[in-house]
Amino acid sequence: MSPGAGRPRLGGPERVALGEVLRSACGVVLGEELALVAERRLGDRLEALQLDSFGAYARYLVLDREGPAELERALDLLVPHETYFFREPAQLECLQREVLPGLVEAGGHRRDLAIWSAGCASGEEPYTLAMLLGGLGLDAGRTVDLLGTDLSGPLLEQARRAEYGPSSLRATSEARRRIGFEPLEEGRVRVLPRYRALVRFERLNLLDGPGVARLPLFELILCRNVLMYFDQPTRRLVVERFHQHLAPGGTLLLGHSENLLTFSNPFQPVQLKGDLVYRKAAR
User: What would the mean pLDDT of 107-115 be, rounded to a whole number?
Assistant: First the structure.
């Protein structure tokens, strides 16, 4: 790209080409809004690589030996990562009052409780779950395996550090701040060790069949505000994988703006007092 030249535009065949690379890599659809984000955020990458168009960038991602590393950078820049502690409190209250106690009771003599937070970004959701479990005392009598997975390596490193600023705490009450975090400088906090000990993180692409296949069975899977960025075939594929990795009678929780009612799937929708959840049939 020559110095002073106008920034390349992302439209027409170039948008189709880049969109296909992203969809194949992680299922994300390069719709109108995300295309505008891509045009703005990836412009610096084109300049750094001395590429003069998004078509050339799409070819670089696929053909160059540095393409896989650049694709990771692109996805980190493009895939939405909006998250914070105790997000969607009404749904979390339903989880705490109706879902978690039922899972523990259904577990009978088993001492393990496995939960998967899929698309956990920087870790606020799985740590929130750890705090909810601690508040119910459910972590005392059973071994808790709380897994958080995400596509972004940098975000997972942040999750492992467990240090957060005010934005991540915007829905967290003072009472919960006192029992869940230790204060750091400049308004930052760190999740307390007893909650950090319940959570582990792994990098995982939900389209990676072998990677997903090695996961264990879970009693609860949360995938909130992730499916909305996929096209219908990808949603169906991911939902099938969630079903395969739920124990009989297990529960899937989605975000409030998502549902499984628009396509056939193996789950049973269950309307609880506080929310709609999806269950795998018990044997």
Answer: 68
State the CB neighbour count (10 A cutoff) for residue 63: 8
Handedness of CA 226, 228, 104, 133 (dihedral sign): positive
Q: How many CB atoms are closer than 10 A to CB 85?
A: 23
Q: How many CB atoms lie within 10 A of CB 114?
A: 23
- Kindly indicate whether the domain formed by 12-78 is annotated with CATH number 1.10.155.10: yes
Residue 50, SS3 per DSSP: coil
Token duo for residue 249:
């009678």
- Return the CATH number of 89-279, one of 3.20.20.70, 3.40.50.150, 3.40.50.2300, 2.10.109.10: 3.40.50.150
State the Rg of the chain over Cα.
20
Domain edges within the chain = 12-78, 89-279
d(CA 30, CA 61): 15
Length of the chain: 283
The HSE-up count of residue 204 (CA atoms within 13 Å, CB side) is: 20
Q: Whose structure tokens read 């934005």?
A: 167
Rounded CA separation 202/160 (Å): 10
Identical fold between 12-78 and 89-279: no
Give the residue among 40, 76, 250, 210 at the shortest CA–CA distance from 150. Answer: 76
70-95 tens-digit pLDDT: 999 999 999 888 899 999 999 999 99
* Helix and strand totals (H; E) in the chain: 14, 10
pLDDT value at residue 137? 66
Place of tokens 């960038």: 57
Helix (H, G, I), strand (E, B) or coil at 162: coil
